[in-house]
Design goal:
The protein has eight helices and no strands. The termini are far apart. About 3% of the residues have low confidence. 81% of the residues lie in helices and 0% in strands.
Amino acid sequence: MAAKHEEEHFKSSDLVTDIVIGMSDGLTVPFALAAGLSGAVDNTAIIITAGLAEIAAGAIAMGLGGYLAGRTEVDHYNSEKRREEYEVEHLPEVEKQEVRDVFAEMGLSKETQDLIADEMAKDKEKWVDFMMKYELGLDEPNPKRARNSAFNIGLSYVVGGLVPLTPYFLTKTPAEGLKWSAVITVVCLFVFGFFKAKVTGQKPWAGAVKVAVIGSIAAAAAFFIAKAIS
């Protein structure tokens, strides 16, 4: 008996995508800001205030970006669907030929192409759905996608941003806060990079190192530039 084959393809969900977007910037930008301020001021209260302000502004900006992207996706789909509905209604022969073209690319015979096109033309709603998916390559987006994306990205940014900022609440000097912030944030960047690479089909360890190095370089650059200027 042949062994049962189980396919293990991972399809990144909208939620995972939003978390990756929010956490990527949330961990990196506030970390770099706090590191830069640590090289310029000697008061943790200033760093905490500036950090919280940046997290709030960043979460709003990122969330708004996610909302606009989601809204654009929905609007684009609806616009293309209206166009397909018009063409099915007023240019049916043209649309039937496009159905034949789709199946011709799959290697089906001319007779089979004609049969499928004629059958599909009997149900205009399913016909339009077919054209949207197989001619235009568009899947119908979740109508709540824009709102959900804004919330998910914004919240992920806040969670990520609090990671490098939290040590400053618990230490007395910026130098001490930076030390613990660097250790905790680099570890989180490494773990985040590992899972990000894993779910996107890349090499997990290489992805982990890349994300941790990029975040560290950004923070180090901010620190030394601020130190030099101050």
